[in-house]
Design a protein that fits this description.
Elements: H1 2-5, H2 22-27, H3 32-52, H4 57-88
Helix pairs in contact: 3-4
Length: about 100
């Protein structure tokens, strides 16, 4: 409700700041290196599950598609929920009756 009562216009999504300190915020911005570091072990884990579950190469390919697909669906959904619930939408903690400040 704070954003409804005190709307703010942002030129671009680059203006979104999660942390109070600008340097800390810049240090926590997601980049593709972090995505690779996180998703590679997750992908390998699901491929290992596929390998354990198969008797032949055809079974391995089929199981990999199943595990990888479901793994991505679960991980994507979970990460989206966590980021939006706990990191990106902190406006629910704002006092809607407080005077407007730049911060």
């Amino acid at each position: 409700m704070a954003l409804v009562k005190r709307p703010r216009h942002m030129e671009s999504t680059d203006g979104i700041q999660i942390f109070d300190d600008a340097e800390e915020d810049a240090g926590h911005k997601s980049d593709w290196h972090m995505n690779i570091k996180v998703m590679t072990p997750v992908s390998l884990l699901f491929m290992f599950f596929s390998y354990l579950d198969c008797d032949s190469m055809t079974d391995f390919v089929y199981a990999t598609l199943i595990w990888f697909t479901w793994g991505l669906i679960v991980m994507w959904t979970l990460m989206e929920y966590i980021q939006h619930r706990f990191l990106l939408h902190q406006e629910v903690h704002l006092d809607p009756e407080a005077p407007w400040t730049k911060e």
